[in-house]
Design brief:
Elements: H1 2-16, E1 21-24, E2 29-32, E3 40-45, E4 53-58, E5 61-68, E6 74-77, E7 89-90, E8 93-96, E9 99-102, E10 105-113, E11 119-126, E12 137-140, E13 148-152, E14 157-160
Parallel strand pairs: 5-12, 6-11
Antiparallel strand pairs: 1-2, 1-13, 3-4, 3-14, 4-5, 4-10, 6-12, 7-10, 8-9, 10-11, 13-14
Length: 161
């Protein structure tokens, strides 16, 4: 099932990447545009298709994140957490009929992206098994406190307000 969803995500993302587009979360609209960047701008790395990868800092520690328009917050992969962040979250196990399973692990820190001021953010730790995806986690639009976001594939930039 996960493979199917990732394949569907890649197909939709490849179609959307044919042009620049905006998502307005308040108006619940998406449209293709070529407007000027918004107040906050972040450069994306090229060569990571179909993902849009950005550099950020969590508590002044560099992290590489994939932008996800459907994710609510910030998620870091347990197998990719930079050493400086490993002690910043709590991890626990709970016993079930199937044995011990990890409980949601949550941490907090200061997130900074590009030239925007750092702000407090809570992040979740996600177990990904042995998968190495080439980035440390997922940055959701809500973690950026954005009501509108623009993807500019010509300039390889993301801007928001």
């Amino acid at each position: 099932m996960l493979g199917f969803l990732l394949g569907l995500f890649r197909l939709v993302w490849l179609i959307l990447r044919l042009g620049n587009f905006d998502i307005d979360y308040n108006a619940k609209r998406i449209w293709f545009s070529g407007g000027e960047p918004m107040a906050s701008v972040l450069s994306a790395e090229s060569g990571n298709e179909p993902y849009l990868i950005v550099k950020a800092r969590n508590d002044d520690i560099p992290v590489t994140l994939m932008i996800d328009t459907g994710c609510d917050g910030l998620m870091l992969f347990a197998n990719s957490i930079p050493n400086g962040l490993k002690g910043k979250y709590s991890a626990s196990l709970t016993s079930t009929v199937f044995g011990e399973v990890p409980v949601t692990q949550i941490g907090s820190g200061k997130l900074s992206t590009g030239t925007t001021p750092a702000y407090s953010v809570r992040f979740h730790i996600v177990e990904t098994g042995n998968n190495r995806m080439g980035f440390d986690g997922i940055l959701g639009v809500r973690a950026l406190h954005a009501s509108r976001i623009r993807f500019d594939f010509e300039q390889m930039a993301v801007s928001w307000r």
